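Hi C.,

You asked whether I'd gotten around to modeling the 249-residue construct. I have! Everything is below, sequence then structure, no commentary in between.
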Amino acid sequence: MHSRDITTAIFADLAAAFGLLTRLPVPFAAPRPEGAWAWPLAGATVGAIAAVAGFAASASGLPAGPGAALVLAVASVLTGGLHEDGLADTVDGFYGGHTTERRLAIMKDSHIGSFGALALMLGLLIRWSALVPLIAGGHWGAIIAVAALSRVPMAAIMAGLPNARGTGLSHQVGRPPAKTAILAAGLALAIALASVEWAALPMALAVAVATAGVAASAKAKIGGQTGDVLGAAQQIAEIAALCLAAALI
């Protein structure tokens, strides 16, 4: 591939990453599975904007509690609640159905059930609780590091598991090769190291453990992955990384 073609592919992958994973007005063409390497950059950008909002609130005298809520709100607006929706649908399906077909049907249903509602509430509560000491200590880089690291599980699970439904966004994007997931992990780790230094390593390990857990559960429950599973993986990885960051930093 010529250097001009490589540059064009890089910018196309970046545009697709922001177009797929955020509500930022970035025009993009149909994404290619190899473009999943860029997802941590989209995540880091979301985290950076949310961190700036939190910093501004803190500088104006807002306590850490409301500041943490603001960070979560800004991040959710920037992503359109994409990953939270995946978490709710996945938990509803995995624990509300008794067969693969029924679980997939529940996950596709736009209505939220009690399992999904509980998952959303508990997820937000844990994330908020972990963010409060980070914000109180002025550890803004941790927000960026977590946002980058938590986008790796989506690429890793897509590379490791087949699509369980044969339709939907995950199916349309396609299955990235393993080297793409490795590249995404390396990029996310570099961003995290630059943001929180060596605390990035145990945070990355926590994300890896969370990813393995979600992947194993998805394989057992529905025989593969869907877009909802990917969103759930991001959320669970974010929770794991935030909790570890709050404990270490």
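If it helps when you're writing up: Residues 114-136 form the longest helix (23 residues).

Thanks,
B.
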